[in-house]
Design a protein that fits this description.
By secondary structure, the chain is an alpha+beta fold. The protein folds into 2 domains: about 60 residues, no CATH class; about 200 residues, Jelly Rolls, CATH 2.60.120.620. The chain is built from 6 helices and 18 strands. The strands form 4 sheets. Strands 1-2-3-15-11-18-9-8-4 form a 9-stranded antiparallel β-sheet. A 5-stranded antiparallel β-sheet has the order 7-10-16-13-14, with no helix packed on it. Strands 5-6 form a two-stranded antiparallel sheet. The chain is elongated. The termini are far apart. About 35% of the residues are buried.
Length: about 290
């Protein structure tokens, strides 16, 4: 017997009652996720219910397609900041991805690598159950979080990223610098926090869901070290000074499964990148 719930009249009445009681939308979504609805399904059901639309036809327990609206990414061919013009090399609409050139100059890349060599240590990931940082075999790299107190250049880059991609600077997490040696990789993963996992709630208290990622390429890898999106057959070769942007959460709060991505193993040389994750709200570092 299936344990997956269906959105029937009982659920509709439950939503009506709790909306009247003044429950927050997120609390309703959380309750539906706890009852085994897929997160994307729960968000779409609530959005349709609030809009007065009819229940989803057919098998409403299936994961609905991610709904693409107006991208957050500026639609101009050249992105601009107060100190930089950065042309798009390519862009994609579904999922929303862009490779942007000339975000950093060579001196800035060299300086970030220099800072990184002084600070990096074995990289960790978020444990899905506890929310704590743990190390896993699927991620073989060394990393460190940097902010303005580390070096003035970090503040400059934070401001530039905010201006280029039209996101509030305060919504960005601290810049995360990463080094991958030979064999270093990060197997396919998502950057957003799966809201059905208990450990995600701890991190989402500090600024909400991640909505976009900017990867800065600091060097050109001799062989290997691509960023790949396996579900759409896309591979990006690191190009010094360029930035890869992708976004993965829409206005309904759905998360885009097509943004599954990976860092392929470095086969020769080393790979240096700096990653900026952007939150829905103001990011608050852990004390």
């Amino acid at each position: 017997m299936s344990t997956i719930p269906r959105f029937d009249s009982t659920w509709q009445n439950w939503l009506d009652e709790n909306i009247r009681r003044g429950c927050t939308h997120q609390s309703l979504i959380d309750a539906m996720i706890a009852a085994a609805f897929h997160p994307n399904t729960a968000r779409l059901i609530l959005a349709r219910h609030l809009a007065g639309d009819a229940p989803l036809p057919g098998d409403d327990t299936a994961t609905p397609d991610y709904l693409y609206g107006t991208p957050m990414l500026p639609q101009t061919r050249v992105l601009t900041a107060s100190d930089r013009e950065a042309p798009k090399v390519f862009s994609c609409e579904q999922p929303v991805i862009a490779l942007v050139a000339d975000v950093l100059d060579h001196d800035e890349c060299d300086r970030l690598i220099e800072i990184g060599r002084e600070h990096v240590q074995r990289s960790s990931v978020v444990d899905p159950d506890s929310g704590k940082e743990i190390t896993i075999e699927e991620r073989k790299s060394e990393g460190a979080f940097l902010n303005a107190s580390t070096d003035a250049l970090v503040e400059t880059i934070d401001r530039r990223i905010a201006e280029l991609f039209r996101q509030p600077a305060e919504n960005g997490e601290d810049l995360h610098i990463l080094r991958y040696g030979v064999g270093g990789e990060y197997r396919p993963h998502y950057d957003y926090f799966p809201e059905e996992q208990a450990g995600s709630k701890h991190h989402m208290l500090r600024g909400g869901q991640r909505i976009a990622t900017v990867i800065l390429y600091l060097n050109e890898v001799e062989r290997g070290g691509d960023t790949t999106f396996p579900d759409i057959g896309l591979a990006i070769h690191p190009r010094r000074g360029s930035a890869l942007y992708f976004e993965y959460v829409n206005e309904l709060g759905q998360s885009d499964p097509k943004t599954l991505h990976a860092g392929t193993p470095v086969e020769q040389g080393e790979k240096w990148i700096a990653t900026k994750w952007i939150r829905r709200g103001r990011f608050r570092p852990e004390q």
